Amino acid sequence: MEAMDLKAIGAGLAAIGMIGAGIGVGNIWASLIATVGRNPAAKSSVELYGWIGFAVTEAIALFALVVALIVLFG
């Protein structure tokens, strides 16, 4: 196998972390919607935590993308 083939495999493996982040973001929004659906008065107190959870989970996806790009082009 050539070096570029191995780099592509490594980048693909590093990008697997983005799958988990996508699942995590879906779980965060599903939980937030379910919480607000059950208790609409709690929206103002749980919405901030939903956004913080989204940001942290999305940051993990960006880290996985950066690692994949470093492996591929580094």
TrEMBL record:
Signal peptide: none annotated. The chain crosses the membrane at residues 12-36, 48-73. InterPro entries: ATP_synth_F0_csu, ATP_synth_F0_csu_DDCD_BS, ATP_synth_F0_csu_sf, ATPase_proteolipid_c-like_dom, F/V-ATP_Csub_sf. It holds the Pfam family ATP-synt_C. The gene is atpE. Its main location: membrane. GO terms for molecular function: lipid binding; proton-transporting ATP synthase activity, rotational mechanism. Keywords: ATP synthesis, Cell membrane, CF(0), Hydrogen ion transport, Ion transport, Lipid-binding, Membrane, Transmembrane, Transmembrane helix, Transport. It comes from the Bacteria. One of its GO terms (cellular component) is proton-transporting two-sector ATPase complex, proton-transporting domain. The record marks 58 as: Reversibly protonated during proton transport. It comes from Phaeovibrio sulfidiphilus. It is found in: Cell membrane; Membrane. Belongs to the ATPase C chain family. Residues 9-70 form the V-ATPase proteolipid subunit C-like domain. This is ATP synthase subunit c. Key component of the F(0) channel; it plays a direct role in translocation across the membrane. A homomeric c-ring of between 10-14 subunits forms the central stalk rotor element with the F(1) delta and epsilon subunits. It is a multi-pass membrane protein.
